[in-house]
Amino acid sequence: MKFALNRSASLQGLVLAGLLATLGASAMAQGAPTAPLAGPAASSRPAGPPGERMGRHDPVKMHAWIAKRQAELKATLKITPAQEGAWSTFTAAMQPPAHGARPTPEQRAELDKLTTPQRIDKMRAMRTQRMTEMAANMDKRGEATKTFYAALTPDQQKVFDTEHKRHGGHGEHGEHGGRGGPQKS
Length: 185
Known about the structure:
Elements (H helix, E strand, L loop, with lengths): L6 H24 L19 H4 L5 H19 L6 H10 L11 H8 L3 H36 L2 H14 L18
């Protein structure tokens, strides 16, 4: 059996993988568990699968988890009153966007009226729009992180770097920030 290499699909797959890795790193950087600053960095890990810890399917639990992680990061960084504005801007930019990945009932009814090729084209357009929105959100988070980082003292930057490395792209969820990979400390 021969397979044709679809350059566009291959590129989209690479872009998607890169975007997801970046999103995972940004999400983990916003609220990493902290350890006491004296001694080696060691954090206690909450029990349960990662999705449950973050309240993955429950927006209220997810926002509570994010708020807790941000409070821990703020305490670890020892944010000064002069840095409060930068901190507020940073945490506001790190809030997860509203999810619109699943078609609404109205969109579903519209899709059901289409032929299969038309539905494929419509879904492709919806996916392209979603990827564009995701890329814009990741760019916004990246710029907010860089702006916040610049407002930190050199010592705070070192702490932020340590926390970001620990829970960023090579954090507790495996080699690429995804779930199900080997756990690292």
